Amino acid sequence: MPRVLFTQAKSKNQMDSATLKGIAVLTELYHWHPYFPCDDIISALFRPIIIARADLTVLLTRGAVTDPRDGRRVALKKLPNVFQSLVSSKRVFRELKMLCFFKHENVLSALDILQPPSLDFFQEIYVITELLQSDLHKIIVSPQHLSADHIKVFLYQILRGLKYLHSARILHRDIKPGNLLVNSNCVLKICDFGLARVEEPDASKNMTQEVVTQYYRAPEILMGANHYTAAVDVWSVGCIFGELLGRRILFQAQSPVQQLELITELLGTPSLEDMRHACAGARAHMMRRAPRPPALAALYTLSVQATHEAVHLLAQMLVFDPAKRISVVDALAHPYLEEGRLRYHSCMCKCCYSAPPAARHYSPDLEPVAPHPFHDGWERKLTSVHQVKEEIHKFIAEQLSTSRVPLCINPQSAAFKSFASGPVLTALRLQLHRGAPVGAAAVAAPVGMTRAPARARQATPGLLRREVTAHRTHSDALACTTIDDATHTSAVP
């Protein structure tokens, strides 16, 4: 006989009071005080993820660079071939605006943008982001043990970040383990917004179906729905949740039709009401097949981590009808995630803090939302690639900080040439840019990433040197020597 699933989750108010009470118990249990290091608490709660040296080396040679202004290790993302078409250029501009809009612990955002060349030579965009050592896919396929605590903390952070995105009316549309970056302390950030878009409130307007990696694609998209909602992201999270429990892809098929078959094997044949979003051909295909009963009891066989609470939450995420699928807000209120919330806010988050000699201070809003929706009305005003190019160039100029010296790329360096066709920068030798005319700033320095001049106009070498000097701080002066990233593989925080 299959085990009975939970039928009622706690209300939000009950969850909040239980959460705060649980946090107090947890901090008392682990004797939180100003001399008790955060790392020790993490160790007491669960073992941090160990990033293999081989994975770390690969990361360092693919995307890790050192900011020459302060010596900080960061990741450098390249957005290539931006202006191939109007659609692609708008999509890149949208992603760039989103990266600058995001301000959330579990969502990757832009720390800086490299200064682009003049408009005539502007073809690529480079964005500096926080550096995280691994991603959830690498962790899932690794032999490292994942405890129930790991799974709860990871799932809590995914939903916490997704709540922020959905509150801004943003659909990610490509939630998968590889797009969930993780560091060695188990802090997780959602990344890769190349397919993200603002949710379309008008159900009569068609939306593309070429979204979401197949294994994590919601059934309404598989069945040709022309319009979909934030529920597609929840389905993807459910697939990842099942993958964390079973350490294997939950629905792994060779084609979309086979993908749908695997889904119906677990959920059973959907009713016509549940398929109202599907196209006529997909509905006819499903109705021609022999009816199948649900087999949700199979979720208990994923692993010993598949407890009553885990399966209850997973079953609410994997619902065929998107209107009946649990929302991110309701999923965060589920009792299964209470321990994940406690652990995250006891020692991992930045929204809560400890002020000696007092106890830990907790944020009144543990799962914050965006201050306002992300607006995309500007997209309809852009009607040509050249117009988009001008707007992106102008946007980057507005984003560049006036308090820090901008950075630019040196395409003449050997390291740059070796990665030119890749998505991220290889390990580079970095140094300050000094003494080059502004027009030649991107080609004058002998190494990869350099300080860009402060004003985008022709200048003498001497003038440029004075501009750089005027912007330099004490930390800048410490970074003036050349740094060879290839010889500092232990520099990743």
From TrEMBL:
<keyword id="KW-0067">ATP-binding</keyword>
<dbReference type="InterPro" id="IPR000719">
    <property type="entry name" value="Prot_kinase_dom"/>
</dbReference>
<dbReference type="InterPro" id="IPR011009">
    <property type="entry name" value="Kinase-like_dom_sf"/>
</dbReference>
<keyword id="KW-0808">Transferase</keyword>
<keyword id="KW-0963">Cytoplasm</keyword>
<feature type="domain" description="Protein kinase">
    <location>
        <begin position="35"/>
        <end position="337"/>
    </location>
</feature>
<dbReference type="GO" id="GO:0016055">
    <property type="term" value="P:Wnt signaling pathway"/>
</dbReference>
<comment type="similarity">
    <text>Belongs to the protein kinase superfamily. CMGC Ser/Thr protein kinase family. MAP kinase subfamily.</text>
</comment>
<keyword id="KW-0479">Metal-binding</keyword>
<dbReference type="GO" id="GO:0046872">
    <property type="term" value="F:metal ion binding"/>
</dbReference>
<keyword id="KW-0418">Kinase</keyword>
<dbReference type="GO" id="GO:0005634">
    <property type="term" value="C:nucleus"/>
</dbReference>
<dbReference type="GO" id="GO:0005737">
    <property type="term" value="C:cytoplasm"/>
</dbReference>
<keyword id="KW-0460">Magnesium</keyword>
<dbReference type="GO" id="GO:0005524">
    <property type="term" value="F:ATP binding"/>
</dbReference>
<dbReference type="Pfam" id="PF00069">
    <property type="entry name" value="Pkinase"/>
</dbReference>
<protein>
    <recommendedName>
        <fullName>Serine/threonine kinase NLK</fullName>
        <ecNumber>2.7.11.24</ecNumber>
    </recommendedName>
</protein>
<keyword id="KW-0539">Nucleus</keyword>
<dbReference type="InterPro" id="IPR008271">
    <property type="entry name" value="Ser/Thr_kinase_AS"/>
</dbReference>
<dbReference type="InterPro" id="IPR050117">
    <property type="entry name" value="MAPK"/>
</dbReference>
<dbReference type="GO" id="GO:0004707">
    <property type="term" value="F:MAP kinase activity"/>
</dbReference>
<keyword id="KW-0547">Nucleotide-binding</keyword>
<keyword id="KW-0723">Serine/threonine-protein kinase</keyword>
<comment type="function">
    <text>Has a role in the Wnt signaling pathway controlling the asymmetry of cell divisions during embryogenesis. Operates in the AB and EMS cell lineages influencing cell specification. Required for body wall muscle development, endoderm development, pop-1 asymmetry and T-cell division asymmetry. Component of the beta-catenin-lit-1 complex which promotes the phosphorylation, down-regulation and subcellular relocation of pop-1. Regulates plp-1 nuclear localization in embryos. Plays a role in male tail tip morphogenesis.</text>
</comment>
<keyword id="KW-0879">Wnt signaling pathway</keyword>
<dbReference type="InterPro" id="IPR003527">
    <property type="entry name" value="MAP_kinase_CS"/>
</dbReference>
